[in-house]
Design brief:
Layout lengths: L8 E7 L6 H11 L20 H6 L6 E7 L2 E7 L7 H8 L4 E7 L6 H12 L4 E6 L8 H12 L3 E3 L3 H9 L3 H8 L6 H13 L4 E5 L8 H11 L9 E5 L4 E4 L8 E10 L3 E10 L1 E3 L3 E4 L4 E4 L3 E5 L2 E4 L2 E3 L3 E5 L9 E3 L5 E2 L10 E7 L5 H14 L4 E5 L4 E6 L2 H15 L3 E4 L6 E4 L3 E9 L6 E11 L4 E5 L11 H11 L9 E2 L2 E9 L7 H18 L2 E14 L4 H10 L3 E7 L5 E8 L6 H9 L4 E11 L2 H16 L1
Parallel strand pairs: 1-3, 1-4, 4-5, 5-7, 6-7, 25-29, 28-30
Antiparallel strand pairs: 2-3, 8-9, 8-20, 10-11, 10-19, 11-18, 12-17, 13-14, 13-19, 15-16, 15-18, 21-23, 21-24, 22-23, 25-31, 26-27, 27-30, 31-33, 31-34, 32-33
Length: 646
């Protein structure tokens, strides 16, 4: 594939609900431009953009793929994105590399949840958009109804290019002079009409609607004509804001003559070439062998192999102009979201925004001794998909995978096995309970051991009571009953004992301990003896001070359309939740604020998606610990004892 000048490049992302025809549209575009001689089918696993082995097996897109098409002397870089909501990170990455998005709508299905999410993503990132009603060849489709529904859902900005009156009104809204002219009954000049349409599409005030049938090759060239005509050129992309070396906010447009800067929006782990970085050239040009500077790591890289990708096919890229998308092999210090630039002109573009994980799963290797392989493999996969996270909970000693849903995490574990030969299983996620006391106690801890040689002797009297602090220790000794040099050993013995409580082995918190008496032996007493005596006192004292279990309580904010609020509130109550309030949202719907035990929320992401048809979302954070209800704590304690005996 030859290199293109910046003003003859267009970058567009294909968005929409799963199964709306994004991948098939690209096949039709490739067929229409002579790249392929037959239309690939997702069902047959032979499409250009869904080339990954797992995508072929699953029958749907998992990752973003780049498919350039050369049409009428213009290079259109199509970025095919997954339709499943679990892969929203791929969509966010793609939208950082394009000038516009095409939102596909299945003519037979109409507006779906994925349509709404695609629209919202474009609004969030201020991306111009075009609707493409696909699969118009299906029986019993009502195109007019779909268009009407789009207008009703997304507003008067949605217009068909054949509707001259609606177009004129929308164009008038882009400029005050044009608005005056429109209301004065004057017609726009061709130049006013053309510029108004371009400006309206660029700022999102106009959203054209087109139609196509990939199977019948209808509307494909018309769509590409519209892209060339209406999508902002790569050189006119909205300014990328970043921070320069002097910590000043600055902007750069795609400018072939400026210093070099690139933004890495995706990383691919290729089994043969190793790591491949997909980058949008924002300014300047790049060529093989060029020195480039990573603004985040503050390390220089040398550009090795540079090539264009079309699915999995690689094409030479001797030099690449601003606005184009390129693949770079084996960058050592570069990750997704990094800025590469000239060392003499350092700039750092904002990193990609990934949503926080909504679902966590605890995993462990099926084979003993594979823990290190699991960690290494997952960290490699995180380079490819930074939208999932890997956490090690040192308290529960579990490895946690966090992501957007079961499908994404299932793909992650499947790739772990396929690429790194490590198999993991999902296990029950443990809860970091706490133990504390509700009453007071006054106990003696005495350690006395006589052997053939020197003995061991330590004796303490300690009062235990509740505290607002995690642990509070003091001494009220008199008359030298316990020598001062043994007091630190007593405190150490208590602190170590708090790591494992008497009820179910959980950490003990909010306890006050006062050492007020004891005794010692001139020869047999030692620090270790008093440490053991303190541990004995702790074990007895906590049991006598009405111990109880505490559970983590989470603060939850749920964002849902109004029609689901009743179901959401009812479900939260079933989860032992407490509703704190509601707030209407500017974008529509409500924000429900609640508190609920962590134990009741492990499957909340799955249930919320089911209850709201994936329209709901939530964020969650730790709030505090509260006492576990008696009937539940009894089960937890009984389970712990059974595990201890097993």
């Amino acid at each position: 594939m030859k290199g293109y000048n910046s003003d003859t490049i267009r970058n567009v992302a294909l968005l929409g609900h799963g199964g709306c025809g994004k991948t098939t549209f690209i096949e039709a575009a490739l067929l229409a431009t002579g790249v392929v001689n037959r239309l690939g089918r997702v069902e047959d696993g032979n499409t250009v953009s869904d080339y990954d082995k797992m995508e072929i097996e699953k029958g749907y897109s998992i990752g973003t793929s780049i498919v350039p098409v050369e049409y009428n002397k213009v290079k259109i870089n199509f970025i095919d994105t997954p339709g499943f909501f679990d892969f929203v990170g791929e969509v966010n990455s793609a939208l950082r590399a394009v000038e516009a998005a095409i939102i596909l709508v299945d003519a037979s299905s109409g507006i779906q949840v994925g349509t709404e999410k695609a629209w919202n993503s474009c609004k969030q990132f201020n991306i111009p958009r075009i609707f493409l009603i696909s699969k118009t060849d299906k029986e019993n489709v009502d195109i007019d109804q779909v268009v009407s529904d789009l207008k009703a859902k997304f507003g008067t900005s949605v217009v068909t290019l054949e509707d001259k009156d609606a177009l004129n009104e929308a164009i008038a809204e882009t400029d005050e002079e044009l608005l005056d002219k429109f209301f004065g009954g004057e017609e726009f000049t061709d130049e006013e009409f053309s510029n108004g349409l371009l400006n309206g599409i660029a700022d999102g005030g106009i959203v054209p609607v087109l139609m196509s049938s990939a199977l019948k090759a209808e509307g494909i060239k018309e769509m590409m004509d519209a892209i060339i005509r209406y999508v902002p050129k790569a050189t006119y992309i909205e300014e990328y804001k970043g921070i320069d070396a002097n910590d000043n906010e600055t902007s750069r447009k795609c400018d072939p003559g400026a210093f070099t800067s690139l933004f890495v929006f995706k990383t691919i782990a290729d089994p043969f070439l190793g790591k491949i970085s997909l980058a949008k050239v924002i300014s300047g040009k790049i060529a093989q062998g060029q020195e480039i500077y990573n603004a985040r790591t503050e390390r220089s890289e040398k550009l090795g192999a540079i090539f264009f990708l079309r699915g999995k096919t690689q094409g030479e890229a001797p030099n690449v102009s601003a606005g184009d998308i390129v693949a770079i092999a084996k960058l050592q210090y570069t990750q997704t979201g990094d800025t590469l630039c000239d060392k003499a002109h350092i700039i750092k573009y904002p990193a990609i925004q990934f949503p926080p994980p909504s679902l966590f799963l605890a995993v462990e290797p099926k084979a003993k001794g594979d823990e290190e392989k699991v960690g290494t493999g997952l960290n490699k996969l995180m380079e490819e998909d930074p939208s999932f996270v890997l956490e090690r909970n040192y308290e529960t000693r579990q490895t946690l995978l966090g992501g957007q849903g079961e499908i994404q995490l299932g793909i992650v574990t499947a790739k772990l096995k396929e690429k790194f030969g490590v198999d993991v299983r999902t296990i029950e996620q443990k809860i970091p309970y706490r133990e504390t006391i509700k009453g007071s106690s006054d106990v003696q801890g005495k350690h006395k051991k006589q052997t053939g040689g020197a003995g061991q002797y330590g004796d303490v009297h300690i009062k235990f009571s509740p505290s607002q602090e995690e642990f509070e220790f003091s001494e009220a000794l008199f008359g030298g009953s316990v020598p001062k040099n043994y007091v630190p050993a007593v405190e150490k013995g208590l602190r170590e004992s708090m790591e494992r409580g008497p009820l179910a082995g959980y950490k003990v918190v909010n306890v006050k301990a006062v050492l007020y008496d004891g005794s010692y032996h001139d020869v047999d007493s030692s620090e270790i003896a008093f440490k053991i005596a303190a541990a004995l006192a702790f074990k007895k004292g906590i049991v006598e001070a009405r111990p109880c279990l505490l559970e983590p309580i989470m603060h939850v904010e749920v964002f849902v359309p109004d029609e689901y609020m009743g179901d959401i509130m009812g479900d939260m109550n079933k989860r032992r939740g407490k509703i704190l309030g509601m707030e209407p949202q500017m974008s529509g719907g409500q924000k429900l604020m609640a508190e609920a035990p962590q134990a009741e929320l492990f499957d909340y992401a799955v249930m919320l998606r089911s209850m709201t048809q994936a329209r709901g979302s939530f964020v969650m954070s730790f709030e505090r610990y509260e006492e576990v209800p008696t009937h539940l704590s009894e089960k937890i304690i009984a389970k712990h004892k059974a595990e201890e005996e097993a």
